[in-house]
Amino acid sequence: MRVLFIHNRYKRYGGEDVAVELETSILSEKGHEVKTIFFENSRIAGVGQKIKTAFSSIYDLYSARKVSGILKEFEPDIIHIHNIFFMASPSVLYAARRHKVPVVMTLHNYRLICANALLFRDNKICELCIHKKFPVAGIRYKCYRNSATESGLVTIITGLHKYMGTWKNKVAAFITLNEFSRSKFLNSSLNLPPEKIITKPNFVPDPGEGNEQREDFFLFAGRLVKEKGAHILTRAFANMPHQKVVIVGDGPEKVFLEQESKHYPNISFIGQLDKRQLGEYMKRCKAFICPSIWYEGTPLTVIEAFASGTPVIASRLGVLSESISDGYNGFHFTAGDPGDLEKKIE
Predict the structure, then answer these.
(1) Spatial contact of 112 and 93, defined as CB atoms under 8 Å apart
(2) DSSP 137-185
């Protein structure tokens, strides 16, 4: 089979990029012919480019022509899209339809029904826009990058293409990463039939055997942003000086968290690590902690933990309630509650 992947990279490397790399790799290993088209949000720089992107992200002629050219040359049996925001734009779906190539689209986040893609506002879950075809609440609350203008742009893109039937008619099937997110999309303004949304979890390479002897520390790994809940983690460990946590990752919350935790030697920040280094920490820790306060997709770190024989302590929220069996392969705690997290760590 010939498979064409289309992926719009964000400015910062993340889980979606990893998923694309893993999927293209395993398909190639199984003998399929694979080609990938990348679009780059890193090209959006300066006021002029931002204004141009604002208009073209609704329907970008350049992207459509680029995809059309590759479709003629490569002649794929199917297209798999992981992200089209913002340089690719929905125009690539229309190019695929003109060439009569079916499209499968993975929904890594909630962008089609939420301006900031997270269903998260003011540090808590928000579902105001799920059932609205053109949700003005996202604009009113400046949900995307704290900007009414940019939130309006995202809302116009997703809302206009709902009215045009783009998502419903130009995509043959959508893939969600878990049953929880599937249920959210089924019960949304997209009005998709159940048979059009399937569930396919993320996966990771086999990391090999875990360690029989674990070391005396817990582990967190992820982007240091509010929704990931690292501040819940540090508050819990601040009350448990006898328990150690190693925090891997970077992000806008890092400086604040380091400053807040500077008097607690049991809380260590070690920055970014490569996959091999993180894998070693995962095999050595007592447990991995996922304290998210938003509806996660399917965190690769949780899968990596289980693959390493490492239990997971996670928020009782969304997919984390699905993937962790309390008392069997880890523990749940009440999302946003440092005190409950302390109990589960102990």
Answers:
(1) no
(2) HHHHTTTTTT-HHHHHHHHHHHHHHHHTTHHHHS-SEEEESSHHHHHHH
Average pLDDT, the chain: 94
CA distance 39 to 17: 12
- The interaxial angle of helices 300-307 and 15-29, nearest 10 deg, is 60
Q: From CA 200, how far away is CA 203, in angstroms rounded?
A: 9
Give the number of other Cβ atoms within 10 Å of residue 217's Cβ. 16
Contact 333, 341 (CB under 8 A): yes
Q: What is the pTM (predicted TM-score) of this model?
A: 0.92
Give the 3-state secondary structure of residue 99. Answer: coil
Question: What is the chain's alpha carbon radius of gyration, rounded to the nearest angstrom?
Answer: 21
Contacts of 152 (CB under 8 A, 6+ apart): 139
How many CA atoms lie less than 13 Å away from 29 in the CB half-sphere?
A: 7
For the chain, what percentages of helix, strand and coil (3-state, to nearest 5) are there? 40, 20, 40
Q: Which amino acid is at 42?
A: S
Report the amino acid identity of residue 144.
Y
pLDDT confidence of residue 50: 60
Nearest to 6 by CA among 65, 66, 83: 83
Rounded CA-CA distance 91/104 in Å is: 15
DSSP label at 194? G
Contact 304, 327 (CB under 8 A): no
pLDDT band at 49 (very low <50, low <70, confident <90, very high): low
Whose CA is closest to 229, among 271, 257, 255, 201?
A: 257
CB atoms within 10 A of CB 321: 15
Greater pLDDT, 294 or 42: 294
* Residues contacting 231, CB < 8 A, separation 6+: 253, 257, 260
172, 103 Cβ separation under 8 angstroms: yes
Q: 58 and 157 in contact (C-beta within 8 Å)?
A: yes
**CB contact at 8 A, 61 and 92:** no
What SS3 state is found at 295? coil
